[in-house]
Amino acid sequence: MSTVWDLETDFLVVGSGAAGLSAAITAAHNGLDVIVVESMDVWGGTTAISGGGLWLPNNPLMEKAGVQDSIDQALDYLDDTIGDVGAWTSRERKLAFLNAVPHYVNLLADEGVKWARSKDYPDYYPDLPGGRIGRALEVKPFNVRKLGKWRKTLKTSIPAPVMTDDVWLLSRAWSTPDGFVRGARFVFRTIGGLLTFQIKYGMGGALAGSLMHIVLKQGTDVWLNAPLKDLVVEDGKVVGAVVERDGKTVRIKTRRGVMLAAGGFAQNKAWRKKYHGVEGWSSAPIGQLGQGIEIGEKAGGALGMMDDAWWGATTAHPDGSQQHGFILNERSDPWSIVVDQKGERYLNESESYIDFGHHMFERDKTTPAIPSWMVLDHRHTTHFLNSTLMVPGAKKKLMDQGEVVVADTLEELSDKMGTDRTTFLETVARFNGFAVDGVDRDFQRGRTAYDRYYGNPLVTPNPNLGTIEKGPFTAMRVYPGDLGTKGGLVTDEHARVLRDDGSVIEGLYSAGNNSASVMGHTYPGPGSTIGPAGVFGYLGALHASQQAQNPGREENE
Is the peptide bond before 472 cis (omega within 30 degrees of 0)? Predict the structure, then answer.
């Protein structure tokens, strides 16, 4: 019995983050009719609430700035950091990503995206062969007034013109000269936008806003509150989809394919327990429930790397929200350490956030470390921004919940944390010796350019180390949370979904956290989530646009 269709389109995109919007833009740019469906009543996905960076080696802005890079160097770096952990990290996939970077960047620039380089941001393992500083791109602050009515449904966490390279300096805006200068620039940038009647968003809001602005200009239909319910498969090929819109079932025939870019399963507690062993302390949007992965698997798609996530240190939300707060500079700035529940250090606090998460899980196998404690000297709380404690009333709420403790002495702090007092005091004494000498002999904190990115250059001899000796002291519980999950549908170099036997499911594509990441179990550089998400969204749509029309549609339409 043949399917009765309610409407037809060339290309259906499921999801409105960077992967989905990049796919929609590419498909429309190549002459396809496109529909974007989003399950939530807001759009932008994880992208909109992220830092908005895209790790894109050998990109055109690097070339323009005279910064040396190459595909070969980037590939060496990827091989060294990622290795090959499955079909999703194949050499073909890595090369497809790297080769597409200039084309992807230039296409979006031609369509109106205003790119900027995060020129100071290092790769996360800059000391390895092929490592570089300044491979990440972001979008310049975007005037969301251009979105018209769509501005009201844009999901973003920072409605201000902040850029990636602002963050590390703004975090110390009142403690270093360069931080003060960057803070002043940010203030003038904000005032300038207001005086010209613009509402400018930076970071994830700028990226999502810029992409959606292009999608709307291209005339693409975007449906909110329209979850994907199923795929229609005929003779092993995806030929359409079933979407619920305004409570009604809509059957959409797709002449060129379906792109699943609906995100991961970070907020699906049952899946988190099944695949990760924990329910999760995620910073990802509430809507990240894995629907796109589940529907893709039902259609025959293979799954890969479901046991991993884009881990990092998180803190509880003051209002008890399911979403945790993600912390960066707080754990890397001097005058701070992280200890397990016994009171011992066990990692480099300044390391890449995914390594931080992996190390927490590994430590917890032998010594309780979930949650751990981040201990702050009084100078840390007065010199640096703390994303968790800076919100008015947050500190008191977290103290009431036992997530934050404060004490005048280290002995009292240890008792409030519940650590072994002798162990904790010995840990602090040993660390203080490292801070004076400038060398962390246990975990090498402050050794690499990445560590030092969030350090304080006025603290010597090591910008990441500072003694823990001046009270009152603060300790915060930290958890192995995440920015999203890493596992999903296995795809090839064209973003086509593969079966367990490696064969291609025709008409089905996937990108972003809906798919198993080409970055494997690691995080090579800033924007390693969104960079590949956008590029493989582009590659999937490009492949779909180059396919022959399905029977019944004229080639020259």
Answer: yes
**Is residue 139 classed as helix, strand or coil in its secondary structure?**
strand
Q: Environment class of residue 502 by beta-carbon count within 10 Å: exposed (0-12), middle (13-18) or buried (19+)?
A: exposed
> Which CATH number is 356's domain given?
3.90.700.10
Q: CA–CA separation, 382 vs 171, rounded Å?
A: 11
- Determine contact, residues 80/192, Cβ cutoff 8 Å: no
How big is the CA angle at 112 (ends 529 and 11), to the nearest 5 degrees? 65
| Domain-embedded: residue 178 | no
Cβ atoms of 226 and 38 closer than 8 Å: yes
* Gyration radius from the chain CA atoms: 24
- Give me the domain span that covers residue 438: 311-482
- Please state, in angstroms and as integers, the Cα–Cα distance from residue 393 to each residue in 261, 317, 388, 389, 398, following that order: 37, 12, 10, 8, 9
How many domains does the structure of the chain reveal? 1
Does 60 fall in a domain?
A: no
- Give the list of residues 6+ apart from residue 503 with CB closer than 8 angstroms, or none: none
Note whether 384 and 172 are within 8 A (CB): yes
On whether residue 497 sits in a domain, the answer given is: no
Angle between helices 530-545 and 91-111 (to 10 degrees): 80
Q: Which residues pair with 515 in a beta bridge?
A: 489
**In 3D, which of 45, 28, 14, 43 has the Cα closest to residue 541?**
28
319 phi, psi to nearest 5 deg: -95, 10
138 pairs with which residues across the strands?
116
| Tokens read off for 385 | 């921004």
The answer for 495, left when phi > 0, alpha when psi is -120 to 50, beta otherwise, is: left
DSSP state for residue 198 in the 8-state scheme: -
Mind listing the pLDDT tens digit for each residue in 308-348?
999 999 999 888 887 898 998 889 999 999 999 999 999 99
Report the alpha-carbon distance of residue 28 to residue 108 in Å, rounded: 12
| Cβ–Cβ < 8 Å for 389, 405 | no
Closest Cα to residue 309, out of 328, 290, 292? 290
What digits encode the pLDDT tens for the residues 455-471? Answer: 888 899 999 999 999 99
Beta strands in 319-467 (DSSP E): 325-326, 336-339, 372-376, 404-407
Closest by Cα among 223, 319, 322 to 281: 322
CA distance 217 to 211: 10
Does any domain span residue 81? no
User: In this model, does residue 156 exceed pLDDT 70?
Assistant: yes
Q: Closest Cα partner for 534 from 69, 2, 23? A: 23
Q: Is the pTM of this model over 0.85?
A: yes
304: nearest Cα among 489, 137, 162? 489
Q: What angle do CA 185, 186, 190 make, to 5 degrees?
A: 115
Distance CA 14, CA 24 (A): 10
Query: Cα separation of 371 and 481, whole Å?
Result: 10
pLDDT in tens, 270-309: 999 999 999 889 999 888 999 999 999 999 999 999 999 9
**Strand, helix or coil for residue 224:** coil
